[in-house]
Amino acid sequence: MKNFIEEVTWRGMLHDVMPGTEEHLMEQMRVAYVGIDPTADSLHIGHLVGVMLLKHFQLSGHKPLALVGGATGMIGDPSGKSNERNLLDEPTLRHNQEAIRAQLSRFLDFTSDAPNAAELVNNYDWMKNFSFLEFIRDIGKHITVNYMMSKDSVKKRLSSESAEGMSFTEFTYQMVQGYDFLHLFKNKSCTLQMGGSDQWGNITTGTELVRRIAGGKAYALTCPLITKADGTKFGKSEGGNIWLDAARTSSYKFYQYWLNTSDVDAEKYIKIFTFLSKEEIADLTEKHTETPHLRLLQKRLAEEITIMVHSQADLENAIKASNILFGNSTSDDLKQLDEATFLDVFEGVPQAEIARNEIEAGIDVIAVLNEKTGFFKSNGEARRALTANSISVNREKVKEDFSLSTKDLINNQFVLLQSGKKNYFVVRVV
């Protein structure tokens, strides 16, 4: 049995923990759960800290439960929110649950015969047949309104800063989450709930229900909410969330997100989002400090997490795609990119369309550079650039006698024009 609390503490993953938790976990195999909101059919990297907690819990010899909040997802957790959440129907929640399970299986062992194999549970399964009268009679009477009002998540929503106020539905959320803990305590011998630091109030409502209704002892543990050194929100890019699903966030963009992490954040994230040992991380950090321009921490972080979420092949493709812009890539490298990755790499680069029949007939390069695309303002300017040997088509230098044809198409659809080192233009054939 590994010391789970010791492990998450040195990794910077512990914010608060109920007294006695460490001793409780060292006695024998225990069961813990983390709740996951199923409002989308993919996790995003904001979920990863909770998932990593479950994985470390399993690696320490304990049994993790991933709770998909089908019932609570129908309500909306007020913690850290300023507005009420959109409510989802059951078919959507079931679809999201299966997609999330598939992603979690890359981290957690659900299939082995080991006593600590992970389980996926959905609180909708035990809440759907609970009548309102039963709930307020059997559960509600054990927790006072005063107790519920004392929680920070409730206080914030009822404060003068919040224009929205708080619906009764959201107010009851902590009771529903608290009942989850009680149900899992009774039916799965679960004695620990883990979550983000904003969940402390909801988790301790659960420990209170376990004490008052089941006469048992349950524990709470929270991890810090991940922040970025520059004050911007972790897990967000200009395009929104960084998702684990490659259809929502390509492996290239995923890799780039971690690669572009600041030194301060990389030193923190490599402990939280990888399974590298304390010694490996210390050695890597020392080397990074000596040669920060090599960005060793960022590269290793991006590599480890891209392989974990996607695959080794996806990592290699992401590195190839990164080298298109920043390395000495070739025409062959370009032609290996799939359409989605190509468009990700050259996102924001000016584009123009040329009819396919014109490409099939062949177009001289000066017409492509000026008349057809507007990359250059005049034929004379294009001609001077060609004479100066500063024009490339798909990474290969071309002269004035060059003619663009179908053999030059990337994915039978694109051509990359380049002037000098940094000026790019994408031609899309339609």
UniProtKB/TrEMBL annotation:
Catalytic function, reaction form: tRNA(Tyr) + L-tyrosine + ATP = L-tyrosyl-tRNA(Tyr) + AMP + diphosphate + H(+)
Entry's localization field: Cytoplasm
E.C. numbers: 6.1.1.1
BP GO annotations: tyrosyl-tRNA aminoacylation
HAMAP family hit by this protein: Tyr_tRNA_synth_type1 (MF_02006)
Protein name: Tyrosine--tRNA ligase
Keywords from the named record: Aminoacyl-tRNA synthetase, ATP-binding, Cytoplasm, Ligase, Nucleotide-binding, Protein biosynthesis, RNA-binding
Role, per record: Catalyzes the attachment of tyrosine to tRNA(Tyr) in a two-step reaction: tyrosine is first activated by ATP to form Tyr-AMP and then transferred to the acceptor end of tRNA(Tyr).
SUPFAM superfamilies in alphabetical order: Alpha-L RNA-binding motif (SSF55174), Nucleotidylyl transferase (SSF52374)
Motif 'HIGH' region per record, residues: 38-47
